[in-house]
Amino acid sequence: MDGSPNTLLELQDVTTGYGDVPVVRGASMTFEKGLITCVIGSNGAGKSTAIKAAAGLLRVWSGRVFVSGADVTREAPHRRLGRGVAFVPQGRIVLPEMTVRENLELGAHILGGDRQRIEEAIARLVTLFPIVGKRMGQLAGTMSGGEQQMLAIARALMTSPSLVILDEPSLGLAPKYVDIVFDKLRELAGTGLTVVMVEQKASRALSFSDWGYVMHTGQVVYAGAAQALLGNENVKRLFLGEVPEDVRLLVEGEAGHA
Questions:
Q1: Class assignment of domain 7-91+162-255?
Q2: What residues have CB less than 8 Å from 207, skipping those under 6 apart?
Q3: How confident is the model at residue 108 (pLDDT cuts 50, 70, 90)?
Q4: What's 123's DSSP letter?
Q5: What's the chain's average pLDDT?
Q6: Within its chain, how far is the Cα of 4 from the centroid?
Q7: Is the pLDDT of residue 139 over 90?
């Protein structure tokens, strides 16, 4: 890998998809330590597919994936978790018939039953997510949608990862909980956690992030500082599904002039 020593995760010319249908085509992205990075684009652009490949949930057809400089292209998701890459799936995925505590403990499976580390992780996360602490004995399926999303994020953080990938963290949430989720992610970033998220609320995501990628038809078409992308007229049009004829990749040097 030729990236910066600050690069935690890198997709290098990745192509992947489902069955024999390519969804992501030659996508390259780098995710730097300590930054919040969003991946945005229209429905079907390949955003979620790209980050699933980054997390090891989809096989990379061609190209490579690196974590902290190590080639993990063929590694299973649990091995990437062991390298510090956690994943929060779309849709507030919790085990509804298990308690909140049991869901959290499931997130700590790679700790090998080390009770001290598990309890320390739970104590840390209850401080970050007080509502989770108040619901420890409650069945996860009886929580509100916003509370379930908090639990899903907390569960992903049980192993103290260095980077967390979130797929549509605000999907289906009431506005109140959208605000809470974004506030919590900002708080987590303040602790040094690197945050990567796919998000449909594009303007909100860019306003919240340090860096951004815009995808269209499986390719990265814009990349740069989030505030620069937020002010780019072509990107604004792309949000609305109208892709300009002169779509081109914005590299870092160009982003400041967008």
A1: alpha beta
A2: 226, 230
A3: confident
A4: H
A5: 87
A6: 20
A7: yes
What's the pLDDT band for 225 if we cut at 50, 70, 90? very high
Pair 9, 30: CB distance under 8 Å: yes
Strand order in the sheet with 85-88: 85-88, 163-167, 194-198, 36-41, 211-216, 219-225
Contact 57, 79 (CB under 8 A): no
Place of tokens 């081109």: 248
H or E stretch including 190? helix 175-190
Global confidence as pTM: 0.86
170 pLDDT band, cuts 50/70/90, is confident
DSSP string, 158-180: TT--SEEEEESTTTT--HHHHHH
Cα distances (angstroms) measured from residue 17 to each of 9, 13, 71, 91, 156: 20, 14, 20, 20, 25
Report d(CA 98, CA 184) in Å as an integer. 24
| Mean pLDDT along residues 222-242 | 80
Give the span between the Cα atoms of 23 and 217, in whole angstroms. Answer: 7
Element (DSSP H or E) covering residue 6? none
Query: Rounded to the nearest 5°, which phi and psi values hold at 224?
Result: 165, -175
* Helix H or strand E encompassing 249: none
Would you state the pLDDT for residue 238? 67
Q: What are the sequence ranges of the domains in the chain?
A: 7-91+162-255
Q: One-letter amino acid identity for 213?
A: Y
- φ/ψ of 91, rounded to 5, equals 100, 20
